[in-house]
Amino acid sequence: MSTQLQRLNQVKADAILLHDKVKIDSALARLSEFLTQDYADKDPVFLVVMNGGFIFAGNLLPKLNFPLQIDYCHATRYRGDTQGSQLEWKVEPHTNLANRHVVIVDDILDEGHTLNAIIQDCIKRQAASVKTLVLVEKIHERKAVHNMKADYCELTTPDEYVFGYGMDYNHYWRNCEAIYILNQPC
Ligand SMILES: O=P(O)(O)OC[C@H]1O[C@H](OP(=O)(O)OP(=O)(O)O)[C@H](O)[C@@H]1O
Ligand code: HPA
C-alpha cells in the first residue's frame, strides 16, 4: 500500500467519532418533518452546494414527499485544506431563481463565508425567499455574520476540523457514513 493510502487510513483510525449513522439518520428524519411542514406547498428549489453538500442532500431529499426541484452550485474556499481562504465560484446555479423559494443545502456552516456568499447571490437573482439547510454547525465566535445560524440544522460540532458524510479531509473520506473529528496535527 502506498504511504499516502497508509496515511489516510491512519487519519481515519485515529479520528474521534462525533456523530454516528444512527444520530445522523434521526437528524435527517427531524429535518424532513420540518421541511415538509414549511415547503410542501411552496414549489421550492433545493440548491445543493458541491462538493460537500451532495451526500447530505442525496440522503435527505428522497425523504421529502412533495414536489421540488434540485439544482447545484459549486463554491469552494478550503480546496482540500483545513483552513479557508478566498471563496472561488466554480459553478453558478442553472435554474432561474427569480420568485422561487430557495433552500441552500450544504454539509457544514463553519465561518459562514460560503453560505453568506451564496445567500447574497440568490437574493441578487431575486429569489422569493432564501433559507439555509446544513448537516452540522460549528460552534465558535468567528462567523462571517455575528451569531449566524442555519435555518435548518440538527447537529453541532465543537471548534475542530471534522470529516465524513460529505466533508473531506484533504479531498478524501467524504464517503464515511459518520462524522469524525480529525485527531492529527493540521
Ligand atoms: O462556513 P465556511 O467557513 O465558509 O465553510 C463551509 C464550506 O467549506 C466547505 O467547502 P469547501 O470550500 O471545502 O469546498 P468543497 O465542498 O468543494 O470541499 C463546506 O463544504 C462548506 O461549503
Ligand atoms: O471542519 C470542516 N471539515 C470539512 N470541511 C470544512 N469546511 C469548513 N469547515 C470544515
UniProtKB/TrEMBL annotation:
Gene Ontology MF terms: glycosyltransferase activity
Protein keywords: Glycosyltransferase, Transferase
A Pfam family this chain is assigned to: Pribosyltran
Entry-linked SUPFAM superfamilies: PRTase-like (SSF53271)
Domain Phosphoribosyltransferase positions: 23-169
CDD domains: PRTases_typeI
InterPro entries linked: HGPRT, PRTase-like, PRTase_dom
Gene3D superfamilies, per database record: 3.40.50.2020
Catalytic activities: GMP + diphosphate = guanine + 5-phospho-alpha-D-ribose 1-diphosphate; IMP + diphosphate = hypoxanthine + 5-phospho-alpha-D-ribose 1-diphosphate
EC number of this enzyme: 2.4.2.8
UniProt-recorded name of the protein: Hypoxanthine-guanine phosphoribosyltransferase
Organism: Aliikangiella maris
